[in-house]
Every structure is written in structure tokens, then in C-alpha cells.
Amino acid sequence: MKKGMKTQKTWSTPITSEKSALVPCALCGKEDFKPYLSGNGFSYVRCLSCNLVQINPQPEQSAVHKRYAGDGYFNYELSNERAFFRLGKLTLYDANISELEKFADQIGNRRVLEIGSATGSLLEFLVWRGWEAQGVEISEKEAEYARTKRALSVSSFPLEENNFPDNYFSLVIAFHLIEHLNNPAAFLREVKRVLAPGGRFLVTTPNVDGFQAHLFGNKWRSAIFDHLYLFSKETLSQFLLNEGFSLEKIVTWGGIAEGCAARPIKRAIDWAAKLFGFGDVMMIRAVKKE
Ligand SMILES: [Zn+2]
Fold first, then answer.
1. CA of 14 relative to ligand 1 center, distance in Å
2. Does domain 81-214+227-288 fall into CATH 3.40.50.150?
3. 3 state DSSP class of 166
4. How far is the CA of 248 from the centre of ligand 1 (A)?
5. What secondary structure letter does DSSP report for 8?
6. Span 146-190, pLDDT tens digits
């Protein structure tokens, strides 16, 4: 494992050749791009109309799903489980989980869905907090691990194939997932369908307009083969608004990677990044309107 990776979920699949095709902008549908970042296994373009950054040509969905089927991905998730759990918990606190629990109790619906639930450590924590938890994890090995080691209910089908009932969950979580998906708009539409009116969606993803992205360019740790999209606060917000969500809170974290500066300097930059919104990773708390 590379230095500095411990604190972030940045799995990178060994690069293979896959079937790919040129696609229009996933946010505005236009086809005018300029090259953005490129490196080993990735070539991003930025849409001239809406600024969305995406890998183009884009690999087919079936190939993308295969990336997460192997032992490598499972072992990566398992060996980083504690670090990811700690980050997930901090994210829930930043999203004000106790406020969301009050709302859930008011409407009598403590059902939570985590999409990309990995080995299930965060879901287990939510069960401990009194939630009825459901996971979705396309890595069958991870789903199986969560089922057998943690007695959790986890499906290994992609979200859209589960046919969860309408208005079913009062909380849906997707941490470091949306950047891996071929069709973020279709994903958000399904999230909204399964959310109860007034229910919240918490989403985290790397911030392409953050300090580190600008500093490192092609070498930014989130510019990788596996991230089909690199969102900014503006582009991710627009996706959510297009699907009918209202935005309640946007937070960014992480000004500089571990090991790049002395600790007090790192602490100061991290603090400023969070305050001014140029952090490396962002979280949006969105609500499904009544
Ligand atoms: Zn566009």
C-alpha cells in the first residue's frame, strides 16, 4: 500500500483493456469537451457547457462491475476496514446523524440503506444505533462477509436490480461510490424512489475543485482508472437538483495529504479547507422533498 493511502478509500483496479465507447456528457447531454487530466489508464475530459469531468471513452458497465469481483478488491477493503469505518463515522457525525434519527423516529421509519456497504462495518454501527439496516454491495465476497461475520442483510445486486419498495428508507448512504458508476443520474433517480418523503441521502466523493486536485493535477490520488467521474460541488449539486432533491448541507474535508507537510501546517490547511470548502473530499446531505 502506498504511503498516505491509509486514510482514503482509493482502490485502483489493475488496468486491463475493456470495451469502451464515447459517451455524451452525463449531466447536460452535450458532446463538446476539452481534455482535462490523463495518466495511467485514464483520460478525463471536461464538458464545455456544464464543467462535468468524466472519463471518455467510457468502459461498459459489465466491464466496470467485473473490476470489483476479485480477491484484490475484497482484501483491500478488509485490510482498510478500520480506517474506512472511522471516516464513515466522522461523516455521519458531520451529517448530524442524531438529527436524522430524530426525524426517523418522528415518521416511525428507522430503515437505512447503505449502497457500497463493503464489509459492513458502518452498517453494523448503524444497527447498534437502532437502525434497521440494509446493504447493497456488488462485490459478492464482501456482501457474503457482511452477511456471515456480521449477520447483516446485504444484497450483491446493483441498486436498481433490488426492486426495493417506493418510499421505503428514511436514510440512504453512498460513500465513495457515485464516482465509480456509469450512470449517476439513473442511480440518483433510484435513490430518490426508495427514499421516504423527507428522507435524507448522504453522498461523499472526491472534490475535483479541491486544493489537492489543483496541486497534484494528473498525479492527484483520485484521478484514477476506477473513477469514471470527478465531481465538483457544483456538478454534483446539479445532478441532485435535476433529480428533484433539495440540498441541505455541503461539507469538504482534507486540505493536504498525510506526509506532505509538517503536522501543524497540515492541521491548519485541513481546517481552512473545511472552512472555505476546498477540501479533497466532499459530502452532500440532500433531502427528498415532500
Ligand atoms: Zn455537460
1. 29
2. yes
3. coil
4. 24
5. S
6. 999 999 999 999 999 999 999 999 999 999 999 999 999 999 999
